[in-house]
Amino acid sequence: MRFKNLGLVILDEEHRFGVRQKERLKQLRAEVDILTLTATPIPRTLNLALTGMRDISIMAEPPEGRLSIKTFIYEWDRDILREACLREIHRGGQVYFLHNEVRTIDRRAREIAELLPEASINVAHGQMPERELERIMLDFYHQRFNVLLCSTIIESGIDVPSANTIIIERADKFGLAQLHQLRGRVGRSRHRAYAYLLIPSWRSISADARKRLEAIASLEDLGAGFALASHDLEIRGAGELLGEAQSGAIDEVGFGLYAELLARAVQSLRAGEPLAAASNHSTDINLHAPTLFPDNYLPDVHMRLVLYKRIAAANELEALQELQEEIVDRFGTLPEPGKRLFKAAAIKVRATQIGVTKIEAGPKGARIEFIEHPRVEPGQILKLLQAAPRTYRLDGPNRIRILREMPKPEERIEVLMAFLDALSPHPESRTHHRVLR
Q1: pTM exceeds cut of 0.90
Q2: What region, left, alpha or beta, does residue 254 occupy, with left being phi > 0 and alpha being psi -120 to 50 degrees?
């Protein structure tokens, strides 16, 4: 199709489109605006939004009177199926029974008829003649029968307010977004809806399938699509920003590092800096003293690792301060090694900001190494060397030595803070001695 003056493209049910189709739509006009609508964004699209490359708006407020859908996971059990269907039928409702194999769907219909002689059953799938399929769906909408045995043809666009129970056979074979879409076919009125996810057995399903099922069962509140999509992103990977893969490639570097590198690249491009600037350094600091949470303060190894990671990820002094207050509130007053850990992290934040790549501090002195082009005025370094020639000395083109006895770790911390404050380009940023005490 040729458009005369296309300005806006709206993609509804975005998860049904492939990358090639979406890229083709964007090629229609160089400056076209794209509005994407979906209950469960695919990992690639969600990743674009989370990294700031696309704007995102979340509509999480449900219609008035709408109730959340109760979700259950069961191994195949005839008694549970009969009870679930009869409960819905006896309250005047209807049931979706999803069996996604057209080859065996008629046999399953006979089995359900034997299990539920009280129910009237009909079959619908995508290989039926169009007229017949339309007639069956209209009959179901007008409540002329109460159990619809169907394939995933009902995944979207179906709104039957009286159908408030869905049974999904072999739920382990479906993706997280697809399960959420299928579950959304019920609960479209003011009645409580139920979703039953059936699996052959917990032993026979894969680890990823188990994660998907546990995620869909735990997030049953209205507006949980974004949270489910986030789980999907973690399970399947973020895909390729410039390629066609919409998921995958999560195990190469880990999602946390991947997101951090991507955020740096986006920030550099927006600031007009060369992309190489995205490879920001991180200061390596060694105080030759214990900087950790002792076992008797925090026995849980996993919790210690989580907190170490949060401290390492903090790139602002305010964030470190808040994290320290949180830990003190949760676990009590910090021991000395814990206090040193936060002070070392504060030194690392400031050192990284001015372009220090390595700090080695011991009882006999310290050595500070800078990147090739540090964010420090040469005049400040000369002023520092002239003011204290016996304390500071150049040791090559990008290294400075501190010639001072510092037997106690606290002395090393104080000296390093004073050194970094002296090199800070802005006087208002010299806050080390007031932070993280």
Answers
A1: no
A2: left
